[in-house]
Amino acid sequence: MSWTATFLRRSLFVVTLAAAAAAPVWAQGRGHANAKKTEHAKPKVTVDLAVSAAKDVLVKQGFDVLRVETKGDSQIIYYRAGNKGKGKGQGPPARMIVRRNDDRIVLEEAPDALRLEIGIKLGIKL
Predict the structure, then answer these.
(1) Is 38 a domain residue?
(2) What does the pLDDT look like over 67-93, one tens digit per residue?
(3) Residues spanned by the domain of 116
(4) CATH of the domain at 84
(5) How many domains, in total, are found in the chain?
(6) Cβ contact 98:47 at 8 Å
(7) What CA–CA distance (Å, rounded) separates 26 from 38?
(8) pLDDT at 38 over 70
(9) Among residues 27, 50, 81, 84, which one has the fewest Cβ atoms lying within 10 Å of its Cβ?
């Protein structure tokens, strides 16, 4: 075997070894740096979903849901305090209006405690 053949074979071996060592470095990208950063996808809260959550919270808090009316793009929930077993009867009727304002749900005429509990159940800030 001649001197040039040995030199070429060793050179080829060194170049191949260097390429194999550099391959993982080439694979190091910037990840998803250019991708849009989004939070976990949250389902959109609709008026129907908010009314359902409000009814669940009202029943859980001891209120009786009398009826739900639809007026235009909003829904009105009529409720009253239930009989808590103290012989004082049921409370006066009250109402809560659930409507959509742009891209969020708005609860009108709702006590703060109920509004907070409904917001927690829906996973949004009201």
Answers:
(1) no
(2) 999 999 899 999 998 887 777 788 899
(3) 47-122
(4) 3.30.310
(5) 1
(6) yes
(7) 28
(8) no
(9) 27
